[in-house]
Amino acid sequence: MKFDKVDNKFKGKRCFILGSAPSILEEDLSLLQNDYVMTLNNSFQLIDYGLKKYQFYNVNDPVSYKELYKKIKTDISKDIIKFYPQNWLENKPHGYPLTEDFIVYNNNRINLFTGEEELLSDNIIPNNFYEGWNDGGSSVIFNSTLICHFMGFEEIYWLGADFYKEPDKVTHFFGKRKRGKRHFEKNELKFKNIIKNLSSMLTLKNKKFVNLSRGFKFTDCMETDTLSHII
Fold this sequence. Notes:
Layout: E1 14-18, E2 36-40, E3 56-58, H1 62-75, E4 81-85, E5 103-105, H2 140-150, E6 155-159, H3 180-186, H4 188-204, E7 208-211, E8 223-224, H5 227-230
Parallel strand pairs: 1-2, 1-6, 2-3, 3-4, 4-5, 6-7, 7-8
Helix pairs in contact: 2-4
């Protein structure tokens, strides 16, 4: 599938990007039934927790894909638009979906046009879908935000994106993930820089970019609100 199918097709629309933070189970996900929704990694399984439907799916971590590929093939319908990263074409994860229809995006740090390394954390934002995705690969939600931006959405909301591990609590709504806590702690400064840079970029383009996650702590990095208030 070519990105042309969705390139700038959703002007004036809003999209909710669903992460896997445990706080997402505190939300009434049925409120999203009339909106565009992108699920990430495990969050397509929120169908079991009140989510009525979603239109997009993105996974960029081969470890996550290895764990999920059987469920992806059986539980995600063919009409869902899937996004997978370019580097999978060279380094194929277990069960790589050669027979699936999906849109490829370039999540390498090298800009294909200039050959230069470009980093979101250094506030170098890609100008179009076909440039390098920089270090957006450090979290699938960063890639997904850029995808939604290039699809034309004028309001982009995060839900279940806490970027924080509560002591003695699970890292994800589906349970513990061994590298979850370490991943948050190791990359905290980088995450904060990228969030600030994405927020600044989208604000300059007159787009609304808001985190609705109840457990989000970096409130100085981007606008926050609640799902019930937005809906």
